[in-house]
Amino acid sequence: MSVTIRDIAQATGLSIGTVSRALKNQGGLTEATRVRISKVARELGYDFANLKQGRIRRIVFLLHRQHNTLSSSPFFSPVLHGAEEACRREGIALSFVAIGPSEPVMEQIRLHQPDAILCAGFFEPELLQALLHTSKPIVLVDMRLRGYTSVNPDNRLGGFLATRHLIQSGRKRIAMISGSLAHFSIQERARGFRQALYESKTLADPSLEVSIPDPSDIENGVREAMRELLSLSRPPDAVFCYNDSAALTALHYCLDLGMKVPHDIAIVGFDDINAAAKSIPPLSSIRVNKEALGATGVDLLIRKQTDDIVEKTLAVELIVRESSCDD
User: Fold this and answer.
1) 40: three-class secondary structure by DSSP
2) Beta-carbon neighbour count of residue 68 at 10 Å?
């Protein structure tokens, strides 16, 4: 026999109306009551599909505050633009919220009253768990976590293509500068980097892999990473950076030292933001269709009629420019 709202009301000692408002994420309740009802509903095995989600009319685009920076905006702004275009075609209102783990995310959700949630970039699992209590469709963009529908660029293939290109260009000491490996995308790019080394029978050197400690301060982090790499007794002759902002900082650091790029050191980034093609020399990068990421996220939300988990991967492309090619 299926669990009903009446069963949840009896189990919690609350009224049917209170339980109904909590499950529909309506106002007039404390957060503690809302969480308690949601927890009991899940423990009893309540089928949240009973809430009969109607047509999606409002979507909230959630971006973690650590991505709401100048260095991250060249990537996430086009993602947001792609989501906006998709929503406009479907007659859906889209609102944008930057949020952090210490902020009242549930209050923001109730303020915007969305029918569905699009989470872009890295989010703590605990924050995502809190969003589950809304019982609204959730899709992750540029992040993957077990139990969630998501869309991502092919990060591992991108890391592989960038590194293989450097190997085929004759580079012998290839370094990687990464951000936190807690991020799915960065973790996958690092795996692609190591896979290319392995397939070329190149021994991975741990001293050539450097992670910057603070993603909100890419410039200082990358400059310190390059200082560390170039001070090695056998410094790298190539660097693969986890994104273009990091790669452009590494490129400028080398040029400031009087090094010739790519003659002395080749550099490849990831994402192919607009600044990559405009730098001097132009930066080689892995092209990601950022607008398509946002649009696909919206499409997955619109078509998310069941609890089935869909993990979609979008193609990437290596764009070779002067920063890694002498020809």
Assistant:
1) helix
2) 17
Closest among 282, 281, 227, 284 to 257, alpha carbons compared: 227
**For residue 51, what are its two tokens?**
């809430």
Return d(Cα 226, Cα 267) in angstroms, integer.
12
Q: List, for residues 221-238, the tens digit of each pLDDT value.
A: 999 999 999 999 999 999
- Percent of the chain topping pLDDT 90: 62
Q: For 202, what's the count of Cα atoms within 13 Å in the CB-facing half-sphere?
A: 22
pTM for this one?
A: 0.82
Which of 216, 217, 284, 213 is closest to 244 using CA atoms?
284
Phi-psi region of 25 (alpha: psi -120 to 50; beta: other; left: phi over 0): left
Q: Is 306 exposed, middle or buried (0-12, 13-18, 19+ CB in 10 A)?
A: exposed
Q: Which two structure tokens, joined as six digits, stand for 23?
A: 């499950």
Q: How far apart are the first and last CA of the chain?
A: 71
d(CA 94, CA 83): 8
Task: For residues 95 and 87, give the distance between their C-alpha atoms in angstroms, rounded to a whole number.
Answer: 10
CA distances from 310 to 135, 151, 297 (A): 17, 8, 11
* Pairwise pLDDT comparison (28 vs 19), residue with the higher score: 19
List, for residues 278-326, the tens digit of each pLDDT value.
Answer: 999 999 999 999 999 999 999 999 987 566 889 999 999 999 999 998 7
Residue 71 — pLDDT band, cuts 50, 70, 90?
low
Closest listed residue to residue 5, CA positions, set 56, 46, 54: 46
Q: 20: closest CA among 1, 44, 2, 41?
A: 41
